[in-house]
Amino acid sequence: MCQPLILAIDTSCDETCAAVTQGRKVLSNVIASQINIHAKYGGVVPHLAKRAHEAKIGFVVRDGMTRSHLVTPDAVAVTVGPGLAPALEIGINYAKKLAQEWHKPLIAINHMEGHLLSSLINMEGSDPSMFISLLVSGGHTQLVFAKKIGHYQLLGQTLDDAAGEALDKLAKMLKLGYPGGPIVEELAKKGNPDSIKLPVPMQYSKDLNFSFSGLKTAAMYLIKTHDKNTSEVGTSFTSEVNFTTNLCAAFQQAIAVSLTTKLKKAIDQYQPRVILLGGGVFSNLYLRRRVRLTARPLPVFVPYAKKLFTDNAAMIGVAAYWHFLKKDFVKDIDSLDRQPSLNF
Ligand code: KG4
Ligand code: ZN
Predict the structure, then answer these.
(1) How far is CA 12 from the centre of its chain?
(2) Is residue 1's pLDDT more than 70?
(3) Ligand 1 pocket residue status of 185, Cβ below 6 Å
């Protein structure tokens, strides 16, 4: 049997995304980024995100369809949460309209299930089973165990800030720009991670949860003290650069220690066969290397392209494929609503 063609839409945050997928295969993957709109505010501004999604959604969907030579899909899939409510709404309403026009089933997808399955995009072979997924994005930090795809057990998550959020806040405090993750990764390459001591909250807690707000607060005090000292005694350009690069390196290292400590604990407890990584923060090569070392000898699956770590609709289409097989369709399309705090 031919695998279904799925038109997938994601407008959960600051990228307007549409993709056409067939099984795990991606036929097109279009992303209209809003980074330029939000950069000057140092973070996503919800009403500006909504307006930009409204302006772009039609073009992005048409572009995705044209690139894949698709006329009508077998189903439409859309992210219903978690995410920014006003942003989610735009994608959901557009997907509802298309599914009704074409008389095709609509599939509601959890954005985090998309990230969870993003490493399977375009991958051949059988479905993974008995796996642990570590999902680290701007809004989430989660450890999930699954005996098989679709049967997820949330093992732990952040109790306050997500790791990506903490990286974005560090960059904002250092006036480096937005999004912070990629800038911090670049600067950290030139810094010494052991030259600044930062706390790793929850490192010794028995559970599998995370916390990053204490790390952020510690960095804030260090920056304040540094600024006060330099305004009193002056500073050279080199020592300013050193402070910034060392802080970025130490911050990134503290995040790595936090993630790998809990991952190791989860591996010992659940004995998975494979680890799946997903979410924008794993664009970071240093963090991926640290996770691979921790997971050894287990295989670690990651998305095959950089743009599949951060938000995209290809991962939503691939997640929707398993729902399609189970005929897990929205029963009453008219009443489908966003679920901004949807969880596993
Ligand atoms: O998964 P994602 O695109 O959006 C959410 O669902 O939240 O993740 C965005 C997050 C941002 O916090 C961004 O700073 C972070 O991913 N990020 C990175 C890197 N690239 C993006 N963090 C660390 N290193 C990177 N290279
Ligand atoms: Zn995301």
Answers:
(1) 11
(2) no
(3) yes
